[in-house]
């Protein structure tokens, strides 16, 4: 009977040590995965709302196809920005377009964009609500 008791105790000790090493291994893997996620931008869904520069960059992407000229320069230093609600951005600015005849025209624009979520640098994350060009 004493042999069985010592043998059972030895087996239990071995299984406890194995379980402890498995827990340590899982802990290391878990910490490694957390560090990888924290260092990547894959969690951009949980980031805060885009700033004015990101909204202005998207506004330029939406306006460029509406301009007939291929030579367009935006007046980046004079844009105005407002937030209507949590995810609606209004940008006022202007751009100059040079025609093939050499004539240059300046157009004022106001665009309303809704941030739908996701990466602020991707066009799919935005929806144009309104565009006025004068």
Describe the structure.
By secondary structure, the chain is of the alpha+beta class. It is 37% helix and 29% strand. Strands 1, 2, 3, 4 and 5 form a five-stranded antiparallel beta sheet that branches. A hairpin with a 4-residue loop joins strand 2 and strand 3. The chain is rod-shaped. The mean pLDDT is 87.
Short descriptors:
5 strands; alpha+beta; 134 residues; five-stranded antiparallel sheet
Short account of what is shown:
The protein has 134 residues and is α+β, with helices and mostly antiparallel strands.
Topology, number of strands: 5
Order of SSEs: HHEEEEE
What Rg do the Cα atoms give? 29 Å
Strand content: 25-35%
First CA to last CA: what distance? 98 Å
Report the uncertain regions. none
Mean pLDDT across residues:
87
Give the overall silhouette: rod-shaped
Task: Describe how the helices and strands are arranged.
Layout lengths: L1 H38 L12 H12 L7 E4 L5 E4 L4 E11 L5 E12 L10 E8 L1
Antiparallel strand pairs: 1-3, 2-3, 3-4, 4-5
